[in-house]
Amino acid sequence: MLTVLIYGAVTSAILAMLAVGFTLIFGVARILNLAHGAFYALGAYFAYTFTAILKLPLIVAAALSVALVALFGVAMERVLVRPLRQSSLAVLMITLVVALTTEQALFVAFGSQSKNVPAFVNFPIYLHGVSVDGQRLLALVIAVALIGALWLFIQRTRLGSAILAVSQDPEAAQYMGIPANRIFTIVMGLSAALAGAAGVIAAPFLSVRPTMDQTAMITAFSVVIVGGLGSIPGSILAALVIGYSQTIVAFYLNPEWTGTVSLVAILLTLVLRPSGLMGRAVGA
Question: How far apart are CA 102 and CA 196, in angstroms?
């Protein structure tokens, strides 16, 4: 039971990092970014490139990876998303194109075989007699710290207040002198950085492959639907529900069935509670 609790917490933390970033950009800019999974994959592959190929120290590689993913997100928002923001369908299509292009670029550059990223912690840690991979525990700590830091940033800083203002009413925020377009860019960068960080810290114990963005995108989307579109607390709660559900299925049933948990969660939510746990109704 303790093993399930620990590994479920790790899975939930990674899902929360993905979902919070996805929810943040939707809540502020009102766009569904289908390239969010690509940020996750890029974080993992940048970490692989900097450590396995360029032989940089892990800390330096991690920082550079997250920074580059954030810059990629900013560039995508300014060059591709901003001119099309008035059309939700156009934004969906362009972000889908970015996701597919990124995946193909990773195939061409690295091939289809899984890559290995060195772990920050290479030894097991024993908790009440249970051996737990040290990297997984580190991932849990980092995920909680980053999500907590994001919450403090939004709630306690002037820029965070501006983000909240834009999320509530972009036009009113502009009348108050808040540059909405700049806020959209910053939020996209934060969203990309959070997803990229998830890829970096999960890469050592997960398979790094070009198609990893698909699983990440489906899972993040399911967490956001279950939690409620635009609700960060809802995303965190849903990440716990889905993360522990996946862990229980993997431990007690079959690891190959974990992928169905997200789909079942989406189906049940749309049928029983379309608004999600803490959000508004889908399509409202």
Answer: 14
